[in-house]
From TrEMBL:
Gene3D superfamilies assigned: (Glycosyl)asparaginase (3.60.20.30)
Entry-linked CDD domains: Glycosylasparaginase
GO MF annotations, alphabetized: N4-(beta-N-acetylglucosaminyl)-L-asparaginase activity; peptidase activity
Binding site for substrate: 232-235, 255-258
UniProt gene name: LOC112055277
InterPro entries the record matches: Ntn_hydrolases_N (IPR029055), Peptidase_T2 (IPR000246)
Originating organism: Bicyclus anynana (Squinting bush brown butterfly)
PANTHER family associated with the record: L-ASPARAGINASE, N(4)-(BETA-N-ACETYLGLUCOSAMINYL)-L-ASPARAGINASE
Feature type site, description Cleavage: 203-204
Protein name in the entry: N(4)-(Beta-N-acetylglucosaminyl)-L-asparaginase
SUPFAM superfamilies: N-terminal nucleophile aminohydrolases (Ntn hydrolases)
């Protein structure tokens, strides 16, 4: 009997080892370098929050496809501003910055908000002041590329497309200052991506990681929407929208048309669906479906992961282009790029 018990528990533990999925990190789009960086933290027994900060920071430094970090997505005034979030699923603590000006390391500033304040989100110029107090360097986020992009939009494209609705510009100009009018001439921006999304036009980095202590963390970093109205805050720094993590369930992160997505807190919804027993894929689909019901033209994706390291994703509005995300877990020798088709039926 004792022998049988030993044998049984041995085979159960072998089963457990072979099914081991954590530590694990998942990352939106194919931001491979960020995934590798986060994985290196996890592999060495590091903390999930460190993996998220380091992984997203690399994307900021490398200006991942121009949509993360400095020198991308200039606003209407030509300035690049940054949004970032970091969430600790062990403590449910959050740090975030939104519309951060003149500081490159948005993810690390978000981490300082989490660790050195009782607040959750700091914004704009005053977030910059906080960052400087925390020892961050202030510098321009404009590059020759972002400057050229803005000059073309302003002078050649006459400030089109833009995010205004029901307004008209000064009659002598193509662009602002705008005034409200019922008889507006500007075309509404109907939540179509400004440019076709392909592998060279990626979006926000969102990451979820579980470390070898079983603690989960999630985070995001982005330079937001191209030619946004100055002061705009997207979904990425909003807890429950850009990302969410809860040690008792799992985590999720989102990318896409942030102004619309943040109205639905898709990351929170995905986590809550998993709490109710949904698989990560089902949970991500529910979150996407909720948005699509109201905004059939929106573009976005959600990736979700439970505490066993099972993960899934859903997306919408990318046309025939599948949505890629990167995964690395303890069972893999190397990261893996997964894709999900966006044309699953919306019911
Ligand atoms: C934003 N969600 O600021 C971000 C950008 C993004 O696909 O992910 N776009 O709206």
């Amino acid at each position: 009997m004792a022998k049988l018990y030993v044998l049984l528990s041995l085979s159960l533990s072998i089963l457990a080892i072979s099914e081991q999925k954590t530590p694990i990190v998942i990352t939106t789009w194919n931001f491979v370098n960020s995934t590798i960086t986060a994985w290196n933290v996890l592999k060495q027994g590091g903390y999930s929050l460190d993996a998220i900060e380091k992984g997203t920071s690399i994307c900021e430094e490398q200006q991942c496809d121009g949509t993360v970090g400095y020198g991308g997505s200039p606003d209407e005034d030509g300035e690049t501003t940054l949004d970032a979030l970091i969430m600790d699923g062990r403590t449910m603590n959050v740090g975030a910055v939104a519309a951060l000006r003149r500081v490159k390391s948005a993810a690390s500033v978000a981490r300082r908000v989490l660790e050195h304040t009782k607040h959750s989100i700091l914004v704009g110029e005053l977030a910059t002041k906080f960052a400087v107090q925390m020892g961050f360097h202030e510098e321009t986020l404009t590059t020759s590329i972002s400057k050229r992009m803005w000059l073309k939009w302003y002078y050649k494209d006459h400030c089109q497309p833009n995010f205004w609705m029901n307004v008209s510009p000064d009659p002598s100009k193509f662009c602002g200052p705008y005034r409200t009018t019922d008889d507006f001439t500007h075309k509404n921006y109907d939540w179509l991506p400004l440019t076709k999304i392909d592998r060279f036009n990626h979006d926000t980095i969102g990451m979820v990681a579980i470390d070898n202590k079983g603690d989960i963390a999630a985070g995001t970093s982005t330079n937001g929407a191209k030619f946004k109205i100055p002061g705009r805050v997207g979904d990425s720094p909003i807890p429950g929208s850009g990302a969410y993590a809860d040690n008792t369930v799992g985590g999720a992160t989102a990318t896409g048309d942030g102004d619309v997505m943040l109205r639905f807190l898709p990351s929170f919804l995905a986590v809550e669906e998993m709490r109710r027993g949904a698989s990560p894929t089902e949970a991500a689909r529910t979150a996407i479906n909720r948005i699509a019901t109201h905004y059939p033209n929106f573009m976005g994706a959600v990736i979700a992961m439970n505490m066993d390291g099972a993960y899934g994703a859903a997306c919408h509005g990318l046309g025939d282009v599948p949505f890629p995300f990167v995964v690395q877990d303890i069972s893999m020798d190397q990261y893996k790029i997964e894709t999900v088709n966006c044309s699953w039926p919306l019911n």
